[in-house]
Every structure is written in C-alpha cells, then in structure tokens.
Write a structure and sequence with these properties.
Layout: H1 36-91, H2 94-103, E1 113-115, E2 122-124
Antiparallel strand pairs: 1-2
Length: 186
C-alpha cells in the first residue's frame, strides 16, 4: 500500500505594493534665519579671548625684561659687595695696620709689658719703648699685599707715552693698496 503523495501548494499572500525608490522633489523647508545678536556675541567673545591672550603674553614678556634687569642689577651689586669685602680685608690686614701705626708715630717695643688692673702693677720689662722701632713695616723688608695696593688706573685713560715720546700702542699692519700680499713664484 502506498500512500498518495500530497502536493504542497505554495501559500500565496498578497504582496505589499512596492514603493518606488525615486520620489518627486518637494519644496525645501524654510529655515529660520540666525539671530544677529547671537552672531555678534560669538564674534565678540572670540575677539575678547584673543585680546586677553595678547595681554597676558605682553605682560609675561614685560616681566621677563624686568627680571633680566633685576638679575643684571643683582650681579653688579654682588661685584660691588665683593670689591668692598676685599677692601675691608685689606685694610684689616696686619701689614695695613702696622703701616698705619707707623704713620701715626707708634713704635714696636722690644718686649711686652702688662698692666694688672686689680692692683695697678706693671708686669714685664716695665719701661717705655724708645723712639726706634724694632720692626719697620714700611722699610726694605716690607711684605707686599695686593689687597692694600692702590687700584690700577681706569682703562679709559690714554696710555702714557714712554721715554722716547712714542705711544705704547701696538703698530698697525701696513695698508693694502695693490691686493693681498703674496710670495713671488716662477
């Protein structure tokens, strides 16, 4: 026995109508016109930001120039301070003190004497120094001290002429009139 083969019938439903891909162009929708106040505010804001940036940049540049000037001034003051410190050290040196004492007529005694304040007794040699000093700070045995030497003349002065009456400036090379000098070759 065989079974009858059933035929499958496709189910046919009505197809929806196709919409066309192309459509007619419709009139464009009218856009609202931008407000003038909003545009002016945006442009004004951009200009204000630009002006603020320029002002900050100029202020920073001006501060850099002021800082450079102050650094230069501080450097000059440090140099002056160092020169004054060197001068003070030179004036307090033993050579300078001995030289000034000799200039005031003080002499160095041969031996030291001490005065005891409690009873007024004189300890040591007990006699005054004679008018001849045992040390001559300005004599032939004087030790030089560059800190108390007089400062050199300023560089702006014209150098003095030597004994022959000629200046001590170096001679300039001869003027070149016929081109560069060169050796003669064959």
């Amino acid at each position: 026995m065989s079974l009858p083969v059933a035929r499958i019938q496709p189910h046919t439903e009505p197809r929806p109508a196709r919409t066309p891909w192309l459509r007619p162009v419709t009139a464009p929708v009218a856009h609202r016109r931008p407000k003038l106040a909003g545009a002016a505010l945006a442009v004004g804001g951009a200009l204000a930001i630009g002006a603020a940036q320029m002002g900050i940049s100029l202020a920073a540049t001006q501060d850099a120039f002021v800082l450079a000037g102050l650094n230069t001034q501080q450097h000059e003051l440090n140099l002056q301070k160092q020169a004054l410190t060197d001068e003070l050290v030179g004036l307090n040196s033993p050579q300078a003190l001995a030289s000034r004492a000799d200039g005031m007529g003080l002499v160095v005694a041969g031996s030291a004497s001490y005065l005891r304040l409690s009873d007024g007794a004189v300890l040591g040699a007990g006699h005054g120094a004679d008018w001849l000093s045992t040390v001559d700070p300005n004599g032939a045995t004087k030790v030089g001290n560059s800190l108390i030497a007089p400062p050199p003349p300023p560089a702006d002065d014209v150098p003095p002429a030597d004994a022959t009456g000629q200046s001590t400036e170096p001679e300039l090379p001869p003027a070149i009139t016929d081109g560069l000098p060169s050796p003669t070759t064959r």
